[in-house]
Write a structure and sequence with these properties.
Rossmann fold; 280 residues; Alpha-Beta Plaits; CobU/CobP; Adenosylcobinamide kinase; 2 domains; 7-stranded mixed β-sheet; DUF503; 8 helices; 13 strands
Length: 280
């Protein structure tokens, strides 16, 4: 099980006394408890008239479920007429197990989806593999297709770096099907979404079809108990491609990355081999 806590900083512009503040907060807390089945308590700012800090706690079988729940809670508070959401923070317990010497990296040891993105040669694949380094068994889903000697050499280099106990599934297009074929508790590493989108476009898929398949991939991951790590490419930061297909690929991969990042429990950006945590 995964425990999560959403800490929300709230401003109450209409409160002119502690009594009025407590009445407003009581109404908000009761609505949150009844609507989302969560535990809610004021943890800071009890003596301030117009400010409060609420802690919203919940438990779920997967971190991705908690992330979606907290998104709904944030949206609800943000739209509440008597309160203004100033800031919030989400913490998961039982998801990350860090240790000294990880250079800021956090080892993911339970279920959910983690997205690792970065530019070319940023170290994203090696970092994604390190997240599963303690798993006794893992499945690597490779989306790249060997089209020439250079690509074959890259694939061989990646393969040689992985533990011998890992199983490899080569699937250039049916990513959701490949994920579903893996036992639900076995960790999965998908490398990478960039090649996958390229393969779908090469096969004649439309933008709508690619986005639909991305949604199917998210659904397949959400049905799993084990960890799923997906690697992608960060595009759009360089020169605009001079040809239409290149621009289509750039824009579409960017949209797919947004869909996956939205569903992910954690997102890391690799810069010069250093992981920068973007989410949560």
């Amino acid at each position: 099980m995964v425990n999560g806590v959403l800490t929300a900083e709230i401003f109450l512009p209409g409160a002119t006394s502690l009594k009025e503040k407590r009445r407003t907060l009581k109404s908000l807390v009761e609505k949150l408890r009844g609507r989302f089945n969560v535990a809610v308590a004021e943890v800071e700012g009890q003596n301030a008239w117009q400010r409060a800090t609420l802690a919203v706690a919940a438990v779920a079988g997967e971190s991705i479920i908690l992330h979606r729940l907290f998104e709904e809670v944030v949206n609800f508070i943000d739209g509440y007429r008597d309160a203004v959401l100033s800031d919030y923070q989400v913490d998961f317990y039982g998801v990350y197990l860090g240790r000294e010497g990880d250079s800021g990296a956090k080892k993911v040891v339970s279920g959910g989806l983690v997205l690792v993105t970065g530019g070319a040669r940023s170290g994203k694949s090696a970092y994604a593999e390190s997240l599963l380094q303690d798993a006794p068994r893992a499945v690597f889903i490779a989306t790249a297709v060997s089209t020439d000697a250079e690509m074959a050499a890259r694939i061989a280099a990646h393969r040689s770096r992985r533990p011998a106990s890992w199983e490899t599934i080569e699937e250039p297009r049916d990513l959701a099907g490949a994920v579903r074929s893996v036992p639900t508790r076995v960790p999965v590493l998908v490398d990478c979404l960039g090649f996958w989108v390229n393969n779908l476009l090469a096969a004649g898929c439309t933008e709508e079809e690619v986005l639909k398949q991305a949604t199917e991939f998210i659904g397949a991951v959400g049905a799993r108990e084990g960890l799923t790590v997906a690697v992608t490419n960060e595009v759009g930061g360089g020169v605009v491609p001079p040809y239409p297909l290149g621009r289509l690929y750039r824009d579409l991969l960017g949209r797919v990355n947004q869909v996956v990042a939205h569903a992910a429990a954690a997102v890391y950006l690799l810069v010069c081999g250093i992981p920068v945590q973007l989410k949560p």
